[in-house]
Predict the structure.
Amino acid sequence: MKTVLFRNHIKSYLLISGISILIGALMAFFSIFPADDLWGFSYFGYSTIAFMVTFSTLIALFSTKQFVAGLHVALFVFFTYYITCIFRRVLVVIGGANEWSYVFQGFGEELGYAVPYAFASLVMGVLLWYQRYRKGWCIFIRVLPLIVAAIETIIFLVQFISLRQGLFILILDGLCTAVCVLVVIFDTTYDLEYQGL
């Protein structure tokens, strides 16, 4: 039987919101590190496509229904993006480059960017939920996160080889690619008709 972590319950929505806020805070924290060194922690705050796609794929896999997957992925992307942007604005103010009005102004401005990302992620979450089927385009949906993660990993591998920087994000992207490979290799499908979904 398939493990279900995300249901249409308020506790489930609060859980994903809390996880997203924590990840957003980590992204903002890592962005204060210099980007031009070997480990390059700051890349985690800026180049996280593979991480977001992998996490969204896992959310969709462990959701009960399409709309639940869509809402959870949308909440994840919204809070992660919004919190990261607001924390970055706070860091700019703490660094003395701007005043606190810059942060308060950012609440509305960043919301204007976060909402469209969340809506697009809602659609992505619904589509990713279909990876559990074994038919035509659903197989492509299952492989798509792997393709995205692999492309970003190759980009960071080339950057690491040529510039000798960004090892942290390269390792993180490599782990995300490995998770996507495991999702593709291990058949995560289950009998939807038996489940009544």
Notes: The radius of gyration is 18 Å. The first helix runs from residue 10 to 30.
